[in-house]
């Protein structure tokens, strides 16, 4: 019996997101981490190309999906969790639960109030809320949900074998770390989460949630080892202390624009990927805030 999973990394280039399909080779049981819906802000069109590529891979490999795992409520892409759950439930004798960390409720409450999302569309929408360090199974494999706050307060990483799927905590070494300026984000928390990650064995692979290859690197990279990060991560390599990291992270965050799909993503993702209920005219609506200068605010 193998103690290590088979890992398929599938990149969604528009949002720069890594989707993961992780399988137990002895049973062909698998989980999905952070799946993506395609969304065009120019036309408001939602499509399922990225999620359908996962379904095709699942069918090709003969996997049975046991769970759909979210690392957090993403602010830069729409999750395909609900779509995949519905499609997979039609094709197998098991409805895979959509799982996330137990602190998602505080995130849901915050953004539901901000965007006017009705309670019946987000309360209790996730099937499983993980406790910190809770373990779960993938066939004969074991996984663990690890709380990694900083980018968001609800953020989880998933440890499966010698692999940590760290979501938006650490990025590629030439990028560093994720932003901490969203509500509930905290650079000190991210420093401590990063040190927790880098306290793992040097050979552990850290699989990131995104990659945005900078000039000089053309291809996205899904993982690097703990040892790589300790030597090379521009924000987090050995020798950088908490005070230096927090100053660097806050300076960087101050110059970042908000994610292009911030408002759309949060409204869909606190619903676990379900679309808003249709109006009496059959439309499904999201709220987008207007930006007005003081002179224009009549």
From TrEMBL:
Gene3D superfamilies: Ribonuclease Z/Hydroxyacylglutathione hydrolase-like (3.60.15.10)
Single biological process term from Gene Ontology: hydrogen sulfide metabolic process
Metallo-beta-lactamase domain location: 16-210
Pfam families, A to Z: Lactamase_B (PF00753)
InterPro entries attached to this UniProt entry: Metallo-B-lactamas, Mito_Persulfide_Diox, POD-like_MBL-fold, RibonucZ/Hydroxyglut_hydro
Bilayer-spanning residue ranges: none
Stretch forming the signal peptide: none
Iron among keywords: no
Record keywords: Metal-binding
Annotated GO MF terms: metal ion binding; sulfur dioxygenase activity
UniProt-listed PANTHER family: PERSULFIDE DIOXYGENASE ETHE1 (PTHR43084), PERSULFIDE DIOXYGENASE ETHE1, MITOCHONDRIAL (PTHR43084:SF1)
Protein name per Swiss-Prot or TrEMBL: Metallo-beta-lactamase domain-containing protein
Naturally occurring in which organism (per UniProt): Penicillium desertorum
């Amino acid at each position: 019996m193998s103690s290590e999973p088979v890992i398929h990394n599938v990149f969604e280039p528009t949002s720069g997101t890594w989707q993961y399909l992780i399988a137990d080779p002895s049973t062909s049981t698998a989980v999905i981490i952070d799946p993506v819906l395609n969304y065009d802000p120019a036309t408001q069109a939602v499509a399922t190309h990225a999620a359908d590529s996962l379904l095709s891979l699942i069918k090709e490999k003969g996997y049975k999906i046991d769970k759909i795992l979210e690392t957090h409520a993403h602010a830069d892409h729409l999750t395909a969790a609900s779509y995949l759950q519905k499609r997979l439930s039609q094709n197998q004798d098991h409805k895979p639960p959509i799982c996330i960390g137990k602190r998602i409720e505080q995130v849901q409450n915050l953004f539901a109030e901000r965007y006017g999302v009705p309670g019946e569309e987000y309360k209790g929408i996730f099937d499983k809320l993980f406790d910190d360090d809770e373990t779960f199974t993938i066939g004969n494999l074991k996984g663990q949900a690890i709380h990694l706050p900083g980018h968001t307060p609800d953020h989880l990483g998933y440890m499966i074998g010698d692999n940590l799927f760290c979501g938006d905590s650490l990025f590629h070494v030439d990028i560093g770390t994720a932003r901490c300026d969203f509500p509930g984000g905290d650079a000190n928390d991210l420093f401590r989460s990063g040190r927790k990650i880098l306290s793992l064995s040097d050979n552990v692979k850290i699989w990131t949630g995104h990659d945005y290859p900078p000039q000089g690197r053309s291809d996205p990279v899904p993982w690097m080892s703990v040892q790589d990060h300790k030597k090379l991560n521009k924000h987090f390599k050995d020798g950088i202390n908490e005070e230096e990291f927090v100053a660097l992270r806050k300076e960087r965050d101050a110059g970042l624009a908000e994610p292009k799909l911030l408002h759309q993503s949060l409204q869909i993702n606190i619903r676990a990927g379900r679309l808003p209920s249709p109006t009496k005219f059959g439309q499904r609506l999201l709220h987008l805030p207007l930006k007005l200068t003081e002179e224009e605010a009549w």
